[in-house]
Here is the input.
Amino acid sequence: MKKILLISLVLSSALNAAPISFDFKDPKGVNAIQFSLDSLLEPISGNGSGVSGMVSFDPANVGATSGKIVVATASLTVSNSMMTDHLRGEKWLNAPVHPEIVFELVKLDNVQTSGTTTTATAAGKFTLNGVTKSLTVPVKLTHLAGAFGKRLNKPEIGGDLLVIRGSFTINRSDYAIMAGQMEDKVNPEIKLTLAIVGSAPKA
Amino acid sequence: MAARITSSRPTRMRTAFRLLAAAALLGGFSCWFLLGAHRGWTKNQVPVQHIDEITSIHYVTYEQRFVPGIDFLLASIGLAGGLSAASFFFNRNPPNPLS
Here is the structure.
């Protein structure tokens, strides 16, 4: 009897320690990547709300976090519809040919956890406009255990949330986006900020 | 009688073009000023900030609203200038066919 109890205890703790898969296709549609680049009159700012992807996160071993975040190129929007069309068009991001912007997490370095929050440096591969480059991004991960149902006003549903925040700057010429062109009108540097939430409902 | 009609038509056209130019300039400036005097690019959708309570994520939705910017103002000035310049194609005193 004691053996059975011990085995079940070990099994249950092993199950609890298993990585959790978080789906970043948000049911509330909040997820977006914000971008901003300086231009002649004012910074051109917008967002890409077509976020999806999965991240495997183990609260007991945050360093082993892995996954992929995808943003649909055709979801990138700015305040002016003509600019939006240009942005998605052939000369800039060519959304029909390169429909996805992808960040694939390879590893987390410099992991520091305090309570539910972890800061780290995410090393991964960033694909934009069909060009893939290695990239490191300082990120903050917040694990909100049991908050999935509460967020949907259905507290009876169990499950966790994982919030990922990060900010980084890329040079558009590195990703063959109008390289060396119109730099007097549109800055070559693009600042990207993400604040996204992944859900892991409990069945 | 026919000579009088021919000679007054260019004058009326010139006046009409100048009035249109003034209307474009005044209309463009009024529109820009009354809709917020925005000194950036023209917007046809305006970002509205929200916050998700549980996650504290700030996110943006877009509201369909026209906010003319400096480019709109410059286009109005360009249109007014074009109309004004076009008015000079209509001579004040066309040559008299009888002289």
In short: Chain A is about 15% helix and 50% strand.
